């Protein structure tokens, strides 16, 4: 510990809280005491560093020690007045701790042992065998869009290019949008649901099925003009296309593997524990 920290600890232990009395049997000077519980210099290591000024160090340590005393006094009163409930509280705390330990073990075990590689054939097979589970809950669309500030007078060029074919005019569209658009995307291979659209375009532009057309849709508000070219769409209730469902199916397969791996692991732990006599049922009825 630095000389600065030693000085602060000594000042606090002798002046702030007068902890010389009832000194515990330890090699270091305590900073504070609440009943038979002590706070030591070692308990606050890392609270300050050599870059902290002496004034700030003294303030930080003083505030920490005072808060520690306050909290532990309150805790003692609470414990004294909740004797009947303490057993249940301790039991809940122990159960929570056990859950945290098991959860941490599961995460580590899965990180080291779970196979997360899922082949397209496996995803396709799952999709083909479970199509009833993949009906759409919302409309989905493949589209390109561009958002242009209203002060840009040449924005109608986008509508012209969109109507004539994005691939044919991709280079001039990209150059124009990069220079003039608030946002844009010419990638119409990605399926977007209504939640995705809500992040990109005004709700009034697509509400009520306005995008249920393979064509151009335009919209204007006080700040921007919006141009959309819908390439394809599927309606809520339809079977979702494979490419749209692919990512979700991969997650389903991996989650299933997780459950199977954990189930096997815990069965092995149980069987091995009994086999090695690490556990036993005492007076178990046969």
What does this structure look like?
Among the domains are: 3-81, no CATH class; 136-234, Chitinase A, domain 3 (Roll). It is built from 9 helices and 7 strands, in the order αββαααβααββααββα. Helix 1 (3-16) crosses helix 2 (54-81) and helix 4 crosses helix 9 (242-275). The longest helix is centred in the last third of the chain and has 34 residues, at 242-275. Strand 1 and strand 2 form a beta hairpin. The strands form 2 sheets. Strands 3, 4, 5, 6 and 7 form a 5-stranded antiparallel beta sheet that branches. The model is unreliable at 1-22 (pLDDT under 50). With 286 residues, the protein is an alpha+beta fold. The protein is flat and about 85 Å long. It starts with a helix and ends in an 11-residue tail after the last helix.
DSSP helix fraction: 40-55%
Q: Note poorly predicted spans.
A: 1-22
Q: Which CATH C-level class of the domain at 136-234 is it?
A: Alpha Beta
N-to-C order of helices and strands: HEEHHHEHHEEHHEEH
What form results from the Cα inertia axes?
flat
- The amount of beta strand, in percent, is 5-15%
State the helix count.
Answer: 9
Q: Could you list some keywords that capture this structure?
A:
9 helices; 286 residues; Chitinase A, domain 3; flat; two-stranded antiparallel sheet; alpha+beta; 7 strands
Brief overview:
With 286 residues, the chain is α+β, with helices and mostly antiparallel strands. Helix content is 51%, strand content 14%. Among the domains are: 3-81, no CATH class; 136-234, Chitinase A, domain 3 (Roll).
Which SSEs are present, and which pair or pack?
Blueprint: H1 3-16, E1 30-34, E2 37-40, H2 54-81, H3 83-113, H4 120-129, E3 140-149, H5 156-164, H6 170-180, E4 183-185, E5 191-193, H7 194-198, H8 203-206, E6 216-220, E7 224-234, H9 242-275
Antiparallel strand pairs: 1-2, 3-4, 3-5, 3-7, 6-7
Helix pairs in contact: 1-2, 4-9
